[in-house]
Amino acid sequence: MIERTRIADLAARPDGPVSVAGWVETVRDQKKVQFVVLRDESGAAQLVNPATREAEDGDDAAQIALGITNEISGLAHGTFIHVQGTLKQDERVKLGGLEVKVGSLEVVSAAIPETPIADDSSLDKRLDWRFLDLRNRKQNLIFRIQTTLEHAFRTYWVERDYIEIHTPKLMASASESRAELFQLEYFETTAYLAQSPQNFKQMAQPAGFGAVFEIADAFRADPSFTSRHATEFTSVDAEISWVESHEDVMAMHEELLVAGFTAVKEKYGKDIEEVFGFEFVVPTAPFPRVTLAEARKIVADSGYEVVRADGDLDPEGERRVSAWAKETHGSEFVFVTDYDASIRPYYHMRHADDPTLTNSYDLLFNGAEISTGAQREHRVETLTAQAVEKGLDPEELGWYLDFFRYGVPPHGGFGMGLARVLMLALHEPSIREVTYLFRGPTRLTP
Amino acid sequence: MIERTRIADLAARPDGPVSVAGWVETVRDQKKVQFVVLRDESGAAQLVNPATREAEDGDDAAQIALGITNEISGLAHGTFIHVQGTLKQDERVKLGGLEVKVGSLEVVSAAIPETPIADDSSLDKRLDWRFLDLRNRKQNLIFRIQTTLEHAFRTYWVERDYIEIHTPKLMASASESRAELFQLEYFETTAYLAQSPQNFKQMAQPAGFGAVFEIADAFRADPSFTSRHATEFTSVDAEISWVESHEDVMAMHEELLVAGFTAVKEKYGKDIEEVFGFEFVVPTAPFPRVTLAEARKIVADSGYEVVRADGDLDPEGERRVSAWAKETHGSEFVFVTDYDASIRPYYHMRHADDPTLTNSYDLLFNGAEISTGAQREHRVETLTAQAVEKGLDPEELGWYLDFFRYGVPPHGGFGMGLARVLMLALHEPSIREVTYLFRGPTRLTP
Lengths: 446, 446
Hints:
Largest interface: A-B, 105 and 105 residues
Helix content of chain A: 25-40%
Number of helices of chain A: 11
CATH class of the largest domain in chain A: Alpha Beta
GO molecular function, one term (chains A, B): RNA binding
EC number (chains A, B): 6.1.1.12
Strand order of the largest sheet of chain A: 6-10-11-16-15-14-13-12
CATH superfamily of the largest domain in chain A: Bira Bifunctional Protein, Domain 2
Domain Aminoacyl-transfer RNA synthetases class-II family profile (chains A, B): 143-446
Largest sheet of chain A: 8 strands, mixed
Subunit structure (chains A, B): Homodimer.
Number of strands of chain A: 16
Oligomer: homodimer
Main location (chains A, B): cytoplasm
Strand content of chain A: 25-35%
CATH architecture of the largest domain in chain A: 2-Layer Sandwich
Number of domains of chain A: 2
Radius of gyration of chain A: 27 Å
């Protein structure tokens, strides 16, 4: 590897010789001294160079110094450089309390001087140049947080002997509904892109895997342009055996989120405060729970009338229930449970004593839905009847219904949008800000 | 949760009352005693029930015992049951040295008695009924090993501050080549499924992410039916900044594999020995390295003539180089380096002193290629020239070439097929055995 100390590691080093490498964030080219803010993947530091503006012929040292000065004067924003220098811890330096005096400097990869985006560029413009947009400390931090969050999720599961699965995204039929489905020519037939791993993570149940998880792509040919929809997104999924109801799924789900948020807080709490300007809150389990019926009442009591006829919450309704949970329970999370069967898929189990309600939930976080979970119907006759009732063709579902014909334990699980969690955890206005490369109806590049 | 002790945890429990749940693997229904082998996600245990073949009217205890006996007699293979009983550690019991005397038994989900596959079913038939096939201890173990391997990979990276990325699988153009590309209608335009995350993991380099990884789906419309090809597969990818050559990538790559294999050996070494019948070997770094030119000589010296004109190895050639590494270095892994530029993609960096060779490698493991890695060409003029030389249109690649115009560190990385690693680590004959749900030209279900 090219020898360098990561900038974040400079603070722990003694004064003296050091190599650093990264890209030029700013150059302050003063008459007597030059300052370069150098950034790498870990942070930013100030380089300092006493300017040499002229040099006599034959004065080799002065010629070299002049060369460095001119090199720095000509540095374009974004240029990647490798610097040998002298580290000095100096608490007067605002940026990190240290600086590196330039000894020698190599331009590794020069940038075109005209940067196509600026701090005030529109989100769409920034996404056009996402690889430059991501150079910001904030964007970098977002994806470090995502890394920590996911790894904590997986570690939670792995420590409990869950099996990680990779379900196929190419399917012979729809996984959820006929709507919003991408289709493609697949040799002599037609394939569809999975809208969720629903069928296949359930398959792990009759397969005797016990508990499984997957963090992977899902696809929806969804023509909407809201701040929380994408045509391709990262879905966080789990499915567990031997549940008694959706309550068991919720108990795991909230523990998982506490584990994930704890890891983020420990590693990046201070950075989040500096960059996003708020204190990152680790939730406490159990999260408050309200039934959908109660949630409707909370919304109505708050003076808002939900503008949908099907009894589900709309985005404003979700915000009101979330606000209620924050106010009365001090919780950013709230489970809304027992959704009407009419607005849930056929594979959700229904109440034994009231088939109009399901053993299901949505999880709301800071005002919006991030996840849907449920106990699944595992009795094949009931499952088939519910499919027919929803207008589905059991013939076409035959391969899926087979999963339930050779023995299957009671089970349940959830699917959760990773970008939604990040967006709401970091108070960002759109999932586009927290997606590496957003995909929407009019966005297929870069 | 439904109360139960996982079968693997029974050995650590004292004798006495216990609940277990799982599916019926076998029933031995003898006249005086019944044995059921019950399996769950963690293992198998023997249930025992003293048979009660008749009961007098009015003798409630005997009636109940008769009921249980009849229930057991009628248990179909695969039926999921929940049992309350009495645990007895007894080393005379071959299966795990313990048994559970049945107190009460509930059929949770009855299986159709006719199982569609048997131990001697063809692989294709087994894949038709994959959810039943996966119930075998061996298949279960494969996916536990996969889970451990992946988690160890990710932990290796996360501990070194790599960023996990989720690159889009929907692209506006080909990521690797025009061949073997799935395409789909995408609103008003056409999208392609990513053949690899190549372009987008490289994007993380000018984005200043430093080091990134991704374990995700990749798609190839590859019509081949070999034991090591699939149309959809899980690709293990990493890309790191500030490399001096492909050697830096290889050093990380071998460390990663050692970390992964160490974790597998620790957790499942004993199980692998029992189920697969061989001792799982943790490799030692550094792995042997030979140039492709040397590899060709090794193959020729072994008396085999490679049947390709382009200078690359063929499968038999790979086997011979692998055999050589095993023989002369005692290593199951071998890096073949410095591939001819003519058989490498345009984005591989070429030797400074010999542009016919690249800073690249393939990693062979137990006779077959599992990975390709390289230092990337990051100088945009050279990259563009190499693309043109390969017959590509720089116009179409414009968005990718832009990544290199605004500053980019020297970098390199690799892509590795997860299923190939597993197949070769477990001496399995096909990736179909180690893929949760295989996808091939004629296989899109279940």
